[in-house]
Structure formats: structure tokens, C-alpha cells
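Subject — a protein and its fold
Fields — amino acid sequence, C-alpha cells
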Amino acid sequence: MTGYLAKRAGQMVLTLFLIVTLTFFLVQAQPGDYATFYALNPDLPADVRAQIKESFGLDKPLWQQYLVHMKNTFTGNFGVSFGHFPRPVLEVLAERLPRTAVLFLTATAVSFYIGFFLGKAIAWRRGGVLEYAATISGATLFTAFTPAFGLMMIWIFAFKLGWLPVGKFLDPLIWRGAEVSANHVFSYMLVTGAAFVAFAFLVLLFFRRSGRIGPAPLVGPVIGAAALAIPVAWAFSDIGFLALDILRHMILPIVTLTLISFAGTMLLTRNSMLETMREDYVMAARAKGLPEKVVRDRHAARNALLPVVTSLVYSLIFAIDGSVIIEGVFSWPGMGMTLLDAVRSEDLPLVMGSMVFIGLFSLLAHVIVDVLYVYLDPRIRYQ
């Protein structure tokens, strides 16, 4: 495994180099330059235009710009964003990346859980009402036109019912006069969520490895008590109402993403389960007299996880760049809109920084999938 990981690391470096090179020349192939966005005023003198180009390094030959950007990229110096001048690229990415990550990773995790649960259920009990209802509704939502569906969700739950805000990241009226910034509150929310996930994982790991106490009676109450303690603690804090405002703005895009994406996992799990159920070890487990739930979850469902986990990991990693459509519909200031605006305005440092992170995460996804394959299927070995 060590030799395989070293080989993959070399391949990742080469692939990342090609991604950065291709991105650079694709952005440079666009007509115009970034200085034009500052020089739209016809009264602006020519020497001022030249000074703007020089300040952004746009007066150098293309090959020199390429060498400078490659050097900065592989040394971790992404420079200053043109569109967010004088903020560094890493500062902009550190602000926008968590917003997209929380939004899309939450929706992906929820849709995966719903899709996997429904997929194994309809594969195990075929021909019932659940199969027809889940398949028809899931396929309908999966093929829905995303912008129209998002606008319909806004029209129903924001305009007609008034349950949720229309969009964006926060309500300016609520935040008017707040002594803390939105990034500060959002960072505390991330820390709280990460602590809860780590606690839940440790509880599950402890009870699964403990031979004295079964996991079923106590895991749910322990994790549920921790989940209940979090909102109670936030309610007594001075910034709890600000965190609630951010959460309210997250509900509608997360629900929309979940509804349009769970069907993919559900149908993939169903097909994988149908293939696994014909295997000899499943029939052997049934012949031993094991309960149907044990055969389904421990023998059929676990071995059907391989293609499903592959799809999940790839969707988690590629969600980092965000969905431009969803972020545009809900006016969510994440990586998707940031990258789109940077490409439109030829903000080369920000484009390069975004593509480096997206490319790096996508390459890591392939390695994570390979490692998970070894864990899920002991028959797989890498030389």
C-alpha cells in the first residue's frame, strides 16, 4: 500500500500541474483584460490605464505571467485577488469555501442517507407500494429543471407561506448593530458542528467495539442528548439569534439540493443490491437461518456499498466548487459564484487559487476511494 500511495502522489503532482497550466491558458484566451473593468470610464487617461495594468502585472509577456503564476501556485502564494483588492486570494477562499462546503456537504450527506435507506429497502422488498412511490418521485425530482425547481421552492416556502427567507446568507435587518461579523458566527457554527460529528463518531466506535453493551439501546439516546444540548447552549449565548438566522437561510437550498439528488443514490443502491442479492454468500447467510435484517444490512447492503461509496466521495469532493445554479438561484455567496465571477472578470489569481483547491480535492477523492475499497472489500489489494 505504501508503494501504491507514493506512486499515486507522483501522479497527483503531474495531474495538478496540467490542471493549473490548462486553467491559466483558458483564462488568458478570453478577450480583453482585467484592466478594462477599471477603465470603462471614457474620461480615464491612457497613462492611468497603463498604471492599472502594471499594478496587476498585466503588462508582462504571457510566458512571464505563466512562470510567475506557476511558481506562486506551487509555493502556496496565490497573490492578491483583482476583484477583491487588496484582499489575498487565500483570505477570499477561506471565507467562501466553508459556506459552500457546509451547504453542499450537508445536502449530500442527507441525500445519501435517504437514498441509501430507500435503495436497499425497495431492492429487498420489490413490487410494493414503497418501490413505486420512491422510484417515481425520485426520478421525477432527479430530472427536474434545477433553476425552475429552486424558484418554485422559493415561491412556495418563502413568498406564499413565508416560512423561510428568500435567499442570501443573512438578513441585514437582524444583523444591523451586531458586534460580531457573520464570518465569526459562522466559524463558531462550524466548530460546533465538527465537535458534534466527532462526538457521534466516537460514540458509535465505542459501542461497536464494546462487547458488553449492545449499540442499539444507548447509541440513539446518547447522540440525541448531545444534539439537543447544542441548540440549548446556543440559545443562551449572545450570538444564538444570529446563528439561527444563518441556519434559516440554509434550510431552503439544502432541502432543494436533497430533493433533486437523493434519487441518484437510491437507484444506484437498488441496482447494486439486486446484483449482490444473487451472490452465493447471501444465500448461504439465509441458509444459516440469520434474521432478514442481518442478511440485508451486514451481507447484502455492505457489499453493495462499493459503487455507492464511490459516487458519494466524488460528489462530496466535487461539491467544493459549488453549484453555480443553486448558489445563483438562492444568492448564496459561496465558491460557485465566486469562481464564476472571477472567470467573468478575469481575476486570474482567484481563478487559479480556486482551481488548485478544486483539482487537489478531486485528486484526493480518487485516493480516498481506493483506500475505502480495501476497507469495504478485503479481497482488494494494491501492490
Q: What stands out?
A: The radius of gyration is 25 Å. The domain at 96-334 is CATH 1.10.3720 (MetI-like fold). The chain has a mean pLDDT of 76.
